[in-house]
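Good day; I would like, with your permission, to put a structural problem before you. I would ask you to consider whether the tokens describe a fold that such a sequence might reasonably adopt. The full record is reproduced below for your convenience:
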Amino acid sequence: MKSLLTSLTILLCFSNYAISQEKKDLVKPNIVIFYVDDLGWQDTELNDLDEPTPWETPNIVALAKEGINFTNGYSPAPTCAPSRAALLSGLHPTKTGVTHVSGGTEPKTTKRSNYVTPYYPIGLMPENFTIAEALKMNGYTTGHVGKWHVGALDIQKSTNQGFDFAYESRGAHQGPKREKNRINNFATHDKGDAYRLSDEKYPPFTKSSPNGISYPKDMVTEKALEFIKSSKDEPFFLYLAHWLVHAPIHTKNKELLQYYSDKLGVEMPTKDIPIKTGGQTNPFYGAMVTTLDWSLGRVVDLLKTTDDPRNPGKKLIETTYIIFSSDNGGVEKANGDIVTDNYPLDQGKKYAQEGGIRVPMVISGPHIPKDKTQDVLINQLDFFPTILNLTNSTVPKKYSSDFDGLDISGVLLNNDKTVKDASGHEREDLWWHFPHNTDSQMQSALRHGDYKLYKNLIPDTYELYRLYKNGKREDLEEKHNIAAQNPEIVKDLSARLETYLEDYNAQMPYKDPSKFKEDAVTSIPVITNDAFDAKSQSVTISLEKGKSKVIEAYALVRIVNANLKKKKGKKGKLGKHDSTLIKIPVESSKNNLEYTFTIPEDIIEYGIILIDENRFMVKSDFHKIN
């Protein structure tokens, strides 16, 4: 036993030594995260299964040939905001609280469900520690270009979350306005055109354009290039978060739209009507995917042709790690269009099924082997701790000890076949939690080896699928629920998932009393007193005796931008991004019949949320103050 432990220790030390030696010949490598919006696992030529995708992505493929393609790469959530918040903070969505988009509002039901989705914040707050803040404290110049979507209040802006530079307009993704639509809004070569077509030519090559076609000017891409050029004298971190390929599904590139119409064998669209043909047959979307690929090519080309002044004799491409991925799976339908098809993966964006969370993922950079494919389980939560290691950056332990991802440097640099934590234990699970939208979408999920387990939050049942068998494709389509035939596997995996949910205090859907007729509704808590003391800024809520027990209580208070001045009349209405509700604790009496809390300064609205033992949500009235 002693010799075995000694051997393992030597191997571990050698592994760490190899990584440290490989990093010694670099002076603070640069980092580029190229983050795409809604790009599906089957929307590129990386992981082409069954029917080859018609969308051409030569630059994405070329990047994979320079690094590692992770075929089992996952986003932290099936929608945009929670994945972005998780990537930036290194914290699981249940820990940031951001589990869906457009949070910071009063919990409500929809016509599609009898359940209230739990409150969740609109984005990251100043107490969250971002990868930009971490790298900035280690000497990096930091830039964000493109989509932010993790908070719009001034305190939540990217420049208040560690970024030195930010450009967050949509660029060429800007949709048509007024009389314009997607068949008459194409870019031209006119000098006054904000999206003027390039003089330079790029793929694809066509019969009419054998030297390539022009692309509309995209300021997201241009600002990314500007940031690299202006920051190359210092180590830099670029978070390029494209608005592409999110809806609206359109393109300003008429020639590229014509190319895909010809390739698909369909007529060039002449009317702005939804594309209803199934599969991957939407030429607008194909043009968007290839435009995204073109943008990546522009960034990589700049890195290839630019000297690194900090590492003489090297180009920036030799000293820069590039991480390419998407915030969630492909959206299959939007605004009446059939956009794409994630087949053989099941479902898409807003679902915990494989089509909603499995995403393209490529990582390249110094000492990473070229043209490799890895099937090891990787989550974008791994990016933060991995980047810290690759850049020899350190952060306070109170942050690093809270990360939910793992450092995958061993996989990147040493060809490790498994991901291990700091104690040397191999990763066994990845898990997700999405208590939103329709009842069928409200699920938690766990990937363990070849298996995928789902917990249907409504009606609290489990499903089990075997995606692979001994590493080979088995039921990637998730067609065959084998839970009944495998009770022991369900028992094991459900115990793992339940532990995660409990440890992370994952918030669940709650019953809306107005939509249930069961006897328990008559016993739900009743608020008999709702008092506000202006002098002490305190609120007291009293409940009627003899009702069901309250098991959870919290207050929601509305904060506004600090510089927002009070105005009167219609012009004084708060704008969409001027305020948000945040969660604050309340104190309860011993008999749980009275709840009190003090309203912080500058709060303009408050209310209280109560959850009873039967999981009914009871809300007080929301009161405006000041």
User: Anything to note?
Assistant: The chain has three domains: 30-414, 429-510, 516-624.
